[in-house]
């Protein structure tokens, strides 16, 4: 589907179908749209974003028309205050997911972290929802993960829950972010959908892991459930193709590894600059 996806993302489905037919690929306009929907490319904005990602990751040369379209899209996004993610580690999304109640244990909560660029997911289970557990996920799994790959987590996006927000001087999560020099962005008030990446991941993990796991096995401890969760996460990150705008069919870890050079290059270029402003958020996904 190279033509409507890469060569000219501004084409509509009818024009894209015609262009493909000229190349001997017989796909109807509705077929083009179905393919776009499956790959999260149904709007011109999403196709432009995929083109931008391919240009950065694969080093493809852009035509003047493509460059003009990308520049126009960039200006529109800035005008509407949309959030951007430019490379792995640029922005992480964190949220709390209520897993359920385990007999003999009580309530189980999942702290979720997703890199908004590569869509790599990191999760850990707890029996409470507090600032300490939110900070523990970062300290135990997230920060070490980025350090292992030679880059840093620059900023993180959360909702305004009490586990993430509070007075810096006596709030464990806020203190940890300050120590690690991670900028904190919050979703708009009454607009939790701005953390949509975590929300979509939670739907996926519910459908593909928890709903199946709880039908097949009776868990007696958080540790036992965490073990199976880690196995599923490894498959999700390493084997499951992702349709995210920067992945375009690659797995999260493949996208992460192949774009580490972007993070390293941009980190070097911005190291001498003063701290930039935190991204402005909108409900646009």
TrEMBL record:
InterPro entries: Integrase_cat-core, RNaseH-like_sf, RNaseH_sf. It comes from the Bacteria. GO terms for molecular function: nucleic acid binding. GO terms for biological process: DNA integration. It comes from Ruegeria intermedia. It holds the Pfam family rve_3. This is Integrase core domain-containing protein. Residues 84-260 form the Integrase catalytic domain.
């Amino acid at each position: 589907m190279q033509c409507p996806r890469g060569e000219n993302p501004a084409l509509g489905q009818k024009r894209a179908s015609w262009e493909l037919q000229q190349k001997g690929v017989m796909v109807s306009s509705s077929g083009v749209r179905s393919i776009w929907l499956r790959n999260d490319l149904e709007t011109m904005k999403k196709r432009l974003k995929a083109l931008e990602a391919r240009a950065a990751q694969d080093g493809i040369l852009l035509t003047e028309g493509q460059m003009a379209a990308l520049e126009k899209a960039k200006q529109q996004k800035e005008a509407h205050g949309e959030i951007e993610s430019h490379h792995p580690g640029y922005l992480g999304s964190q949220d709390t997911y209520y897993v359920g109640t385990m007999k003999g244990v009580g309530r189980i909560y999942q702290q979720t972290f997703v890199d908004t660029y590569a869509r790599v997911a990191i999760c850990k289970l707890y029996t409470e929802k507090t600032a300490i557990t939110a900070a523990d996920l970062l300290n135990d799994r997230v920060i070490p993960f980025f350090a292992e790959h030679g880059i840093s987590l620059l900023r993180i996006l959360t909702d305004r829950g009490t586990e993430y927000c509070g007075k810096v001087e006596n709030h464990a999560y806020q203190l940890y972010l300050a120590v690690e020099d991670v900028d904190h962005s919050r979703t708009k008030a009454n607009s939790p959908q701005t953390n949509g990446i975590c929300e979509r991941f939670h739907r996926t993990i519910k459908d593909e892991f928890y709903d199946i796991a709880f039908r097949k096995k009776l868990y007696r401890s958080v540790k036992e459930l965490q073990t199976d969760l880690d196995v599923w996460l490894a498959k999700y990150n390493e084997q499951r193709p992702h349709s995210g705008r920067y992945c375009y069919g690659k797995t999260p870890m493949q996208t992460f590894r192949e774009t580490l050079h972007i993070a390293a290059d941009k980190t070097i270029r911005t190291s001498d600059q003063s701290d930039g402003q935190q991204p402005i958020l909108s409900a646009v996904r």
